[in-house]
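job 3f2a | input accepted
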Amino acid sequence: MKKNSHRLFSFSISVAEGEERLDTYLSSRLEGLTRSKVQSLVKKGFVKVNGKLAKAGYRLKGGDCVDISIPPDPPDELKPEPIEFVILHEDSSLIVLNKPSGLVVHPAPGHPTGTLVHGLLQYCPELSGRGGLERPGIIHRLDKDTSGLMVVAKNDRVHRFLSGQFKGGTVKKRYLALVHGNTKGERGEVNLPIARHPRRRKEMSVLLSGGKKALTLWQKLETFDDKFSLLSVSPRTGRTHQIRVHLSYLGHPIAGDQVYGYKKNWWKKTVVFEKPDAPANRKTDAPCGNPGVYSPRF
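job 3f2a | predicted structure (298 res):
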């Protein structure tokens, strides 16, 4: 069932259950659903008896069929919070920022507060609404433990324009990844489909049959005593966890990746995009920060 889909329930009323009020019956059989909530759903047309709308006080009869559709709870209004991140470029249309590692982009299960979105609302209350109530201005995402560049839209027009570039694959992205081992060769590509892991449903995996097309290009920049390699990585598609999954499949998982590898360090360095009012490509680089972040200790 999708996160934002309605929950559907059907009940066949027995003779013994007859004469009970509709609202009392449903509230006693659906956990977390109060009688007043049922009455509200009845008024809004989410409850039917024998395929027809009914009143909350309707007395059930043996043989009745009751259907109820429970809509998802509306998201709580996001409250601005002081969250640290570095702005690398800003104009009237967009913001380019450097997201720090450890920061979740938008509210999600387990992370209702303290996200980048909360910080953006504190810094710039007027953002594009096309991302929805929980993702204002958000065009694309980075994993929690990934640091690097993100582009945020200030209005719907720019949001549509940039989203089209991301979907069309015209946005050029480059990541730096410190991986375990010394890669064979100086450059290469991984052209293998990715899908949800068949057993660990929160993870992704290379799936040769039924996965979505995924292409990742890589180039070796430096090695460290044959124990680690620093790679420049360019994903040509945008699958969830794509770089992490592809590099792990090659036998060179990202250092610091606690899901697909051994333990955590990677970040996006460069993003190139167009603005609707400035056709020329714009390129922005993220500072690498403290070299100790990615220089391993031997």
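job 3f2a | The longest helix spans residues 156-168.
job 3f2a | closed
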